[in-house]
Amino acid sequence: MQSSAEEISSLLHAWYQGDRTALDKLTPLVYDELHRLAHNYMRKERGDPTLQTTTLVNEAFLRLVKAQTVEWKDRNHFYAISANLMRRILTDLSRSRGYLKHGGNLKRIPLDGDSPVSPGPDPDLVKLDDALSTLARCDPRKAKVVELRFFGGLSVTETAEALEVSTSTVDRDWELARVWLYCRLKNRG
Predict the structure, then answer these.
(1) What average pLDDT score do residues 99-128 get?
(2) What is the Cβ-side half-sphere exposure of residue 172, based on CA atoms within 13 angstroms?
(3) Mean pLDDT of the chain
(4) Is 70 left (phi over 0), alpha (psi -120 to 50) or beta?
(5) What is the domain range of residue 82?
(6) What's the distance, CA 99 to chain centroid?
(7) How far apart are CA 169 and CA 177, in angstroms?
(8) Considering its fold, how many domains does the chain have in total?
(9) Do the Cβ atoms of 141 and 165 come closer than 8 Å?
(10) Which of 30, 42, 125, 138 is a good FRET partner for 50, with 20 to 30 A between their CA atoms?
(11) How confident is the model at residue 121 (pLDDT cuts 50, 70, 90)?
(12) Each residue of 104-115: pLDDT tens digit?
């Protein structure tokens, strides 16, 4: 049964206020969506990953539970933070594997406007993470739009709600960020 955004937001607020039972109720409500986010990330990971989807979900959730000081705005804020954590976990794993040291090939990462999740396998997450970090220093909102749409799988509307901007702003940021990342990754290849 699909739970409402209001119910999840309410439980997040209660959890932040210290209600331990709220976390127990929240966990089964958000698990499937976290698993979907993790699956999207894992599809982008290089072949034969050492980290399984369920393990990624569990690691991200453990880190979320430890982040008791986060004042959750709503469901979208929760998933945005979750997407960021999963990106960090996989990027750290890629860095530990030494892909940059071993000259991993730059893979084409399609960032088409119709699909927030890349259908192409095996992008180099470390190079994309570096490019996103550079973009974040220049324009944090555009980097956040990419993170939420590409990694988090959020729609334009959900991204706009999470960032508290209009959908036209998200569309504009998404287009400009895609071009910027394309140029940045092409020049590094």
Answers:
(1) 51
(2) 7
(3) 77
(4) beta
(5) 5-188
(6) 21
(7) 12
(8) 1
(9) yes
(10) 30
(11) very low
(12) 444 554 555 444
